Amino acid sequence: MAKRNLPENVKIEIFSRLPVKTLLRFKCVCKSCYTMFESPTFITKHLHHKQDTNLNHHSRCLVVCCEKVTEKYFAIFLANETLNRFVDLELPKFGYRRFSLRSILNSCNGIVCLYGNLSDKGTRIKHSIVLLNPATRECKCLPQVPERVSYPPYVNYNYDSLVFGFDSKSNDYKVLRLVRLHDRFRKRNLPWIVQIYTLSSNSWREIDVVVPALIEFDPVFNAYSNGAYNWYAMDPKGRLILSFDFHNEVFRTKRAPDFNLIFPMYAFATVNGHFALVLMKNDGLYNPIMDIWVMIDESWTHHSTIAFGPINKDLETPLAIWGNNKFLFKNREGEIILYDHNTHEINNHKIHGVDSSYIYVAVYDESLVSIQGEKWLAEDTTAALDGLFNIFS
């Protein structure tokens, strides 16, 4: 019986549904697979299928960043779907330069953006940014953020923020730095400094753009959605949502929902396909409450209120939204709390040997997206991760 090959489009459909780990193994032994999996078209198709699947089944992975108690440095822990196993990942090295992690900025299309310092023979380089793809074990240290000439001692930083995003039209990844300086002598803010890094050029540039609102607080977790990064801000007319469009490289605004909340802990998400604002507050008895507002046809609609009750009074900080119905928090004991809104089930998870004061979480979709970097992780760590992901791959 003659051997029959599957049509190319059928192969693509099958392969686009497989985990990244399986595809990487195929790349090593099959030349045609290597060519297919390196194709931008296939990478995009695989990513979109993964995102659609994760939206329905919440099968995303987590990167957890926190400080080790004994060694006093930040580390990355990769967790499985049920949060019952954590693998301690080594931080990337770039030649003789060692990366010292301070926080996770945000994630996009399977790429996680880290912020910290580089140490090179006793010299510490601040404002160091590293991109990594946990699925392909690829990492990249970005060029140093260019600084302007030094400022007088009476001028200091009033606001300094870094965020990461994707320009879908040019298929390029970008990092935005937003800086505001304050002149203490004249008691006024100086004009915003806006800088952009693009992965395709591997360089920074300053852009001349108007920032039309005052950013009061940073979001407590990832605020990237559909090609834009968002902040809760205000202008003379009141409170609004300030967004940076990564393609057009401009800021846009829309009015915030009307509620009486002065100092909110807030974040943004996609809920049932709609842009959503998530607010964390307390009721009159200091029990934590989460309010979710969604934007439908350019108007805000109150989606739901989640009251956690006195038994969960020790919830401190929301960390992430996992899919459509799971929420992650940090409590006063340094545990990660997983709350399922559908079943109202609450599970506590502890990472042993870490300082409970600092926990950051990035939810990401596994992808084949390349960041034009270098390989990261030793063989023994990679083997541990393969065991971790075998649980749910």
Description of the structure:
- The protein is mainly beta and 393 residues long.
- It is 14% helix and 49% strand.
- The strands form six sheets. It has a six-stranded antiparallel β-sheet, with no helix packed on it. Strands 9, 10, 11, 12 and 13 form a five-stranded antiparallel β-sheet that branches.
- Strand 15 and strand 16 form a beta hairpin.
- Helix 2 packs across helix 3.
- The longest helix is centred in the N-terminal third of the chain and has 18 residues.
- The C terminus is likely disordered.
Secondary-structure topology with pairs:
Blueprint: H1 8-15, H2 20-29, H3 31-37, H4 40-57, E1 61-68, E2 74-79, E3 86-89, E4 93-94, E5 97-108, E6 111-120, E7 123-133, E8 138-141, E9 155-167, E10 172-183, E11 188-189, E12 193-198, E13 203-207, E14 214-217, E15 224-225, E16 228-235, E17 238-245, E18 250-255, E19 265-271, E20 274-282, E21 288-296, E22 299-307, E23 315-322, E24 326-331, E25 336-340, E26 345-349, E27 354-364, E28 374-375, H5 379-389
Antiparallel strand pairs: 1-2, 1-27, 2-3, 4-5, 5-6, 6-7, 7-8, 8-28, 9-10, 10-11, 10-12, 12-13, 14-16, 15-16, 16-17, 17-18, 19-20, 20-21, 21-22, 23-24, 24-25, 25-26
Helix pairs in contact: 2-3
Index terms:
disordered C terminus; 393 residues; mainly beta; 28 strands; six-stranded antiparallel β-sheet
Structural class: mainly beta
Distance between the termini: 35 Å
What is the helix fraction of residues, given as a range?
Answer: 10-25%
Which percent range describes the beta-strand content? over 45%
How many helices? The count is 5
Strand order of the largest sheet: 4-5-6-7-8-28
Flag low-confidence runs.
388-393
Number of strands: 28
Largest beta-sheet details: 6 strands, antiparallel
C-alpha-based Rg, rounded: 22 Å
Based on Cα principal axes, name the global outline: globular
- Report the mean per-residue pLDDT as an integer: 80
